[in-house]
Structures are given as C-alpha cells and as structure tokens.
Amino acid sequence: MKARRTVLRAICLVAFSFALLATPALAAEKIKISTFQANLCCFTVYVAKELKLFEKHGIDAELVYGTGIQAANIMISGSADVGAFAVEHGIAVIARGQDLKLLVLNQQLPPLGLIVRNNVPTPNADKPYPAMMRDLKGLKIGISSAGASTDTILQYLLRQAGLDPKKDVTIVPVGDPNTMLAALKNGVIDAAMAVEPTQTIAVQGLKMAKMLVDVEGGGAPLFQQYAYNGMFVRSAFIKDRPQVARGIVAAVVEAEQAINDPARVDEIMRVGAATIKGMDPVLLRAYLDRYRAIFRPVATVQAVENVNSLLYSNKLIPRTVPYDQLVATDFMPKEFALPKTH
Known about the structure:
Low-confidence stretches: 10-25
Mean pLDDT: 91
Number of helices: 14
Shape: globular
Radius of gyration: 23 Å
Largest sheet: 5 strands, mixed
Distance between the termini: 64 Å
Strand content: 15-25%
Number of strands: 10
C-alpha cells in the first residue's frame, strides 16, 4: 500500500509539472507610447525598448511617432496611453484643465543648443549671458515647430537679452533634426535652436556652425536645474493600471542607469545606431561622454518651478502648476543610483 501511494504521489507530481509547463505565461500589458523619432530627447525610451526593459517589467510597448507638439497631442487625444514629451507641454495642458500626471523624467536638461552658421558674425560671443544673444538681431532662426520646446526656449532667451521675438528676428519652423540640419546647411536659416543630434553634427561633425548658447550644458541659468522630458499618463491610467505605471518607471530608470554606465557604452551605441539615424557613431559617443549626466529620472520641486517660470514669463500659461498637481508623487523616483562602474 505504501509503495502504491508513493507511485501515485510521483504520478501526481509529474502531472502537476506538465500542467505548469502547459499554463501560458501572463500576457504582457500592451501600451502605445507617443514619442519622437531619431531624437536624443527620448533616447531613454529607445534604450528601454531596444534592451527589452519594458518587456522585463511586463509591458508590450509600441512607439507612435510625432514631431514637435504632436507627440503630446497624440497622447492627449487618446491615440496613445503614454506620452514621452516635454514637461513644458504637460504643464501647459494641465494649466488649461487637462488631467495628466508626470511619472518619471527621461531627461533633466533640454537637448538643445543655440547655434549659428560659421559665416554669421558673433562679436558678443565671449561676453557673459545673455549678451551673446544680441548677435541674433535680424537673423532667420530655425525651430522644429511653433509651440515646441525649441520655440518656447528660443523666445525666452531672446527676451532675456531684450530682443522681441516677433520684431527683432524671423523664427522659421523647419521640422525634425534632419530637415533642420539641411536648412542650416543650405542657408535657409542663419541660426537654429537645434535639438540633438543637430547641433553635435553641425558643430563637431560638419563643422559648419558654432555654439552660441549651450542650453543642454546649462548655459543659461534657468536651465541649470530643469525638468525637460518625461513620461506622462492620465490619472485614470494610474488608478486602473498602477502596476503598468510602475513598470514604465522601472524600465526608464534602468535605461538611464545603462546610459550612465561606461561599461555598457558599446551596448548603448548599438541602440543609437538603430534609432538615431544619420549620426556618425564617433559623434554619438562624444555626445554621450559629454552629456550622459542629463539622463536622470528625478524631477525636483525647483526643476518644476523653473519650467513654470519659463512658461509664465512667456505668457504661455494662465497660472503656474504646483508640483503635486503635475507629478505622480507615489511613482516619481526620489533619488537615482548611478551604476557602480560610473
């Protein structure tokens, strides 16, 4: 009898093991993320996607692309569940009644640089900020699109120097980084509020332009602490799918740790080659070496206040948006641990 019970127990264990093998794994949660294409402001999104970090945290992420303000509008319209776009855009729509929440930052400082063609005189280039901005008077300056960060930040810098964006310069929407580069190269514009990789290619690669204000490097005081680009969802998304929201945050944080890890630079370079088309690998590596520290997930109170200050001073919002209204404080990381090899 004892032997029979032993045999039956063994049969049951085998059957249970096969049942486990036959049971399908839980399906990954499908989401759509609106973002930019071939644009370093959303590099963390590309890294999380290419390194399967979204998958690791139970998310099947589909990227939906737009340019300028489109990335925000795609998500706000309901065509995407999550939006990777400028915090400026998030604050602007919240100030007008939309119910959005910032989960995590993709990037702290704007990947922007105010560059001018080499043949444009810049007699004030070596003077303290914002004196160098006065050299732009009378020029045609390229932006990605009206209302985009390239536009709002350019107008802020111009006003800091006492220039009127509507009278003293001509602002020209020229599209994404590739078309902006072509416009600069062909003389359609004299200068550009360039979004990476445009400025790195123009200044270091083609050597046809010079940097006037390195916004990405904190070249203007307001941008030394800033919250530039992040992952937005609606409050209802957090309520209905909290584990997915936490998975998004975890994937972004791991992507930023990978970007900040010198030991993983070859891996990150492969992501860049697959997603940042048209950028020489040497330039991409130089960019990462110089600017990887801006890829941080934490939005501080001061950083959010500075974004509010930019928008309010440009008369782009009717009121400032408090930190707790903008940020999903239960999800936003409080600190960021750099990799040990950093």
